[in-house]
Amino acid sequence: MTPLRHQIEALHADAFRWALHQAGDRQLAEDALQAAYEALLSGAASCREPEAFKSFFFGVVRNKVRALRRRQTLSRFVALDFNALQKRPAPPPSSSGADPRVAAVQQALLTLSPRQRDLIELVFYHELTLDEAARTLGINPGTARTHYDRAKRALRTHLDAQEDACLSNPTR
After folding, report:
1. Which of 1, 76, 93, 141 has the greatest CB tally within 10 Å of its CB?
2. Cα torsion for 147, 151, 152, 153, to the nearest 10°?
3. Could you give the CA distance from residue 102 to residue 121 in angstroms, rounded to a whole number?
C-alpha cells in the first residue's frame, strides 16, 4: 500500500465527518469525498507539505463539496419548475428525548457564522490546530484566531443565557 493510500485510509472517518459537516447532506458528502479521493490518487491535487496533509486533504474535501453544490444549484436552476414552488410547512421538531445539553450546544452552534462553525468543527472535532484549520479554510491564521475567539465568546454567551433561563424557570 502506498503512503498516500495509507494516509487517506487513516483519515477516512474524520474526512467523512468533515464532508458531512460541509455538505449537510449524506449523498453530497459521499460524492465530494469520492471526488477528493480521485483528485488525490490521480495527482490532480497534491500536498507539498507532508506534515500538513490532514489540513490539505480537508481543504480538498471542502472545495469538492463547494464545486458539487454549485453544480447542483445550477442544474436545479436550469430545471426549475416555477409552478411547483410552494411553501411547505416545516417538519415538526423531533421529540427523541436527546440530552438537553447536546441540544443546547447544537442550538448555540447555529448562532455562529459559517466560518466560525467550520473553525469550531475543525479544532474541536477534528483536532486540527488553528493554523491547520486556517490552511484548510484558505484563510489567514490571524483571521482564524479572530473568528475562533469570537465563536467561543458567542457560544459562552449563548449557553450562559440558556442556563440562566433554565435556572429562572425550573419547569422548562
Report:
1. 141
2. 100
3. 15
Q: Which residue has the cell 484558505?
A: 138
Which pLDDT score is estimated for 35? 94
- The helix-helix angle for 3-23 and 53-78 (nearest 10°) equals 50
pLDDT along the chain (172 residues), means of 10: 88 94 93 94 89 93 91 58 42 56 83 91 88 92 95 89 72 52
| Nearest of 82, 68, 84 to residue 25 by alpha carbon | 68
Q: Topology of domain 97-172, per CATH?
A: Arc Repressor Mutant, subunit A (1.10.10)
What residue segments make up the domains of the chain, in order of their start? 1-81, 97-172
